[in-house]
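From the thread on structure requests for the teaching lab: each student submitted one protein with a one-line request. Submission from student K.M.:

"Model Tetratricopeptide repeat protein from Streptomyces silvae, tokens only."
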Amino acid sequence: MARVTQQERPKDKAFAPEYQGALGSLSVNSSLTEVLAKGIEELRAAERDGQQREMARCGLAVAEAYRRLGRVTEADAAWKASYRAARAAGDVGAMAWALWSGGTLARQRGSLALAYRLLGLAAEMGERGGDVVVRGYSLAGLAETGRIQGDYQAVGELHEQLLAEARRRGEARHTVWALEGIAQMHRNTGSYDKALALFEEAAETAGAADDRRGRAWALRGIADVVSVRDGDVERALALLTEAEEACRDMKLSSALAYNHKMRGNVHYRAGQYARARDTYTRALAEFEEMNEPRGTALSRLGLAKSLARLGRNPAETAVELAELHRTLDRIGLRHARDMVDKAAAELGVGPLPDVGHRVEEAATR
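Reply posted by the TA:
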């Protein structure tokens, strides 16, 4: 069974349970290009030897490296191949990990209904196979999917439950994830002091556990709060610069793009609209290259607001916001959709009723 136990790892250090089999020695901080190269090498060796279980394990690491690098087509093929190999080997735990990877990819691509289905199956298989780690990761994936949709009431309790479980098992990486998720919900509902405290705890926990990825995300959260709450542009940008270094070192394409998008937010809040425009444009290109619809839509929103502040025709801004509203509604991102409505009011081009009609009408003019 493809199972990573806590007894095999120091409890005070972060580890990557998705790196299994021949790749089990890889660090959580290994660069994704290194993971991909070694994963492909070991996967081919397993294929030559006809070792289905090892194919599943190595294929999981390959799928995750492709996903985090934004190469979604290759990631989709890799997680499915990992699942097929796990099924051929009769390894329920490895099947669960492959489904977790597929569900996480589906969320990244904006296919939230598919993400729910795959992650739910992964959690069930993890429980059936006795792998508490993949079960926890899958439940966390379900919680995160609900959180990015803005369904805080439904997933808030699950976040707290997973945080307690992670702390009890000494899983530093998962503890950091849960802290960041809870912090983000507090931030989005205006509880900035609580959000900041949780993001700072996450950053400290990640630093102590040598989890550079988790710390980079936590620093991004801290930067967001000190920007929106305190207007501290200098500190926010310094935190984002520190986080960006880790993202670049580890080749974290998605995290880097979100870092750039947040940098655009900081510039926008400070009234630095030209800088915000340029930064959002950069982030938008990065998200489009990865085919990540959520990041793409959020960058488009920031860019539209910046252009409006720089004198763009209000009618063009209205059309752009209407298109974004429709896109976010289709994906199911309610919180982000509400952000579009707030932007329309802020810029004096809203409200935006009858979204589809207005977009179609503008396109025929």
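TA comment: The chain has a mean pLDDT of 90. DSSP finds 17 helices and no strands in the chain.
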